Amino acid sequence: MEKVNTLLKYIFDTTPGSDFGYYLPMLILSGLLILAGIAFMFVYNKRKRKDFAFKRMFKNTSRSLVFFGILFLFLIGTRYENIPYFGMRFLLYISLLGLAYLLYSYVKKHRTDYRKELKLNPKSTFKENVQKEVSYTAKKKRK
User: Fold this and answer.
1) Which three-class secondary structure state does DSSP give residue 51?
2) What single-letter DSSP state applies at residue 13?
3) In the chain, which ranges are continuous DSSP H helix?
4) Any bridge partners for residue 78, and if so which?
């Protein structure tokens, strides 16, 4: 029982101290998440005109990646400054679990739902050369 209490005190310590060996990897992860979110925004804007299934399924991906990148920067900053409650290990672990779930859900969505949508409705998902119809006017043009 003492080991469980020690583990819980370790995880839920309000001021764990600024001694943290993972500053650099967490900063790199935060930077990569922000850059991936910005890059995915450009990919999404390019593909959303042609691929309606992609537009519908991956609308919030870039926003979520940037959000998690900024969240990790905030948590690392509060841990470095030793701010109580915001620098808790528990918040960092919950954020890492949230990121893992987000990435898992997007990979699963791409592998299953998106491919099913492409197979079921190939005409409605890819419209590269959409021609506009000439509008009919009843009046003759004057010379």
Assistant:
1) strand
2) -
3) 2-11, 23-47, 52-57, 61-80, 89-108, 115-120, 122-125
4) none
Q: How far apart are CA 6 and CA 46, in angstroms?
A: 52
**Which two tokens mark 36?**
């991936």
Alpha-carbon distance 138 to 136, whole Å?
A: 7
Sketch the domain layout of the chain as residue ranges. 19-125
Q: Which residues of 32-61 are buried (b: 16+ CB within 10 A; e: fewer)?
A: ebbebbeebeeebeeeeeebbbbeebbeeb
Residue type, 65: L
Tens digits of residue pLDDT in 29-46: 999 999 999 999 999 999
Residue in the block written with tokens 């310590």: 13
Which residues does 20 contact at the CB level (< 8 Å), separation at least 6?
76, 79, 80
DSSP SS3 for 126? strand
18-22, 78-82, 98-102, 121-125: least confident range: 121-125
